[in-house]
Amino acid sequence: MKALVTGGGGFLGSNLVRALLARGDEVRVLARGDYPALRALGAETLRGDVSDGEAVRAACAGMEVVFHTAALAGGWGDPRRYEAVNVGGTENVLAGCSAAGVPVLVHTSTPSVVHVGGDIEGGDESLPYADEFLADYPRTKAEAERRVRAASDERLRTVSIRPHFIWGPGDRHLLPRLVERSRAGRLRRVGGGDPLVDTIYVDNCVHAHLLAADRLRAGAAIGGRAYFVSDGEPVGVWTMANRMLEAAGEKPIAGSVPRFVAHGAGVMLEAWHRLTGNEREPLMTRFGASQLGHAQWFDIGAARRDLGYEPIVSREEGLRRLAARFATPSV
């Protein structure tokens, strides 16, 4: 098939591009940067931002499926930028698909769209969207997902995939941040426990996206739905963080702060950054404290039933691959 991947230069997007090319699909990438390595593999690369409607419309032309992975993530930033990228960008993708007659759209969402604070243990797709959000990222992703699901009809069939804690070799955000803060002595556990969370190895996340696209193209009655996907078994958030640090050759996290202290620090640091005009993400945010201090794992039975999804890489194998990447600095 002819596939467009928005955000194709990112961690998930680039792995999705490689998987599509490996199985013989024609791939076009829309990304803000230049990615000669993807061109060398056979992808067509276009430079552009999803907040640019004309760039998105041009990228959608001639495509049979669009994978919309581009997003502005994080727990801090300019609300206007989150609106422009996550909501406006998604509207541009929907409009581009409509104008080009693209029949299938797979949208990368997040479980944070249903997180209202507190623990979620074994939740499923019947959970409603949150009424209030601790950050603009989940707020705008929820609005984007609503619009994607509402747009699904006979001409454009859509599915939203909700992965949590995507990890693996090539991650340029999550693990590098852990390593940086660990080396600086600024990494602490939030709370005294080890709340269970979902994780998903990047190859498993790619697999879920491909299954969704293929099922939609085959006419499966899954249009307009959203699916939680994961590695299939929740894990303690600090257990996983320490195993990733171990794979990177770093020491485990030492020390902790009470959850209420982390939340209070997030409140104060966010207020200080706003007051001083500091655009960098604070060391702790309310969203970060909530994500790290509460259980958040979901039943993936619907993805198994409707998409035929099963993890294809175990957590142990993923950690072995991660350690091998760090053991080969040139890779």
Shape designation: globular
Amount of beta strand: 15-25%
**CATH-defined fold name of the domain at 2-171 and 197-236 and 296-314:** Rossmann fold
DSSP strand tally:
15
Overall average pLDDT? 93
Number of helices: 12
Q: Say what oligomer this is.
A: single chain
- The low-confidence runs, each spanning 5 or more residues with pLDDT under 50, are none
Largest sheet: 7 strands, parallel
- From the alpha-carbon coordinates, what is the Rg to the nearest angstrom? 19 Å
Q: In which order are the strands of the major sheet placed?
A: 3-2-1-4-5-7-12
**Any guess at the CATH architecture of the domain at 2-171 and 197-236 and 296-314?**
3-Layer(aba) Sandwich
Q: Could you name the CATH class of the domain at 2-171 and 197-236 and 296-314?
A: Alpha Beta
Summary keywords:
two-stranded parallel sheet, alpha/beta, 17% strand, 44% helix, 12 helices, 331 residues
Structure description:
The protein is an alpha/beta fold and 331 residues long. It has a domain at 2-171 and 197-236 and 296-314: Rossmann fold (3-Layer(aba) Sandwich). Helices cover 44% and strands 17% of the residues. It has twelve helices and 15 strands. Helix 1 links the parallel strand 1 (2-6) and strand 2 (26-31). The longest helix has 22 residues, at 79-100.
